[in-house]
Design a protein that fits this description.
There is one protein chain. It contains six helices and 13 strands. It has 296 residues and is of the alpha/beta class. Helix 4 links the parallel strand 4 and strand 5. It is elongated and about 80 Å long.
Length: 296
Amino acid sequence: MPTTSDNPMLRLLYGNVTEEEYYDPIWFGKLKEVIDNYSPDIIYFDSWLDQIPEEYLYKFTRYYIEESRKQGKEVAIYRKQGDLPLNVSMENLEKSWKQEMEPRLWTTEETISTDSWCYTEDMELRKAKDLIDILIDVVSKNGVFMLNVSPRADGVIPVEQQEILLSIGDWLKVNGEAIYGIRPWYVYGEGPTSQPEGDFENHKAFLKIRYNYQDIRYTTKGKDIYAITMGVPQENEVVVFRGFAKDKIPRDVVVQNVTVLGSNQQISWDYGDEGLRVTTPILAGYHAVVFKIECE
């Protein structure tokens, strides 16, 4: 639509420009300004890169990567909808996550509320346990979890949201060893809870997922393997980690010891053909339980 003024600056403000005036000086120009002045570690595109001609996508990607190499740093381009090749970008999902482990690192984003990305008076908040479970599931499948919070207009994060973040932080203080700096194991996990396929179009179905202690996820670091129950088993319950089944595991594993992060209780365990069998101790106050399995 035409502007109501002949002022050329207003024409730019309202986007009444030709393709030649937009793609290089405006679209690429803004990105170049950010790269040159702020050297970002991540550039995130929410959508609609498919509307940018390939030559400008290539120009931006090449410029960003080359400038980062000059500084000796690694950077990431987040994108959705298959807008860029995965050899130069990271797949980013919205309010959904993968069904299986991915060979390439990927990301997903969630909100601290059930729906809104910003603060609203009537927003319904998620439970800390559900967000912790999503984090566990995502990292076990070679993913990165981004959590959106919703401060008020004055920049203050409401107390109710702070309490959720603090609860997640308390869990990570005890169990972060199984989350930070880890790698996915040969299998992400096992358990009865299923999840839908797809991305944001199925976000309401993803919102209904509730994991329990029979849902188990694995991560690994060095020679240690972490088996995480996404819920709290009863005392003296026998939990079988079937990822250790001898007809499935790709290499022989010699288990030396099993402990629960954050607990000094002795763990009774044995290793048989069906997997690693663990008898659970008293586990009060946990959202999800991390069993550290030390191997040779």
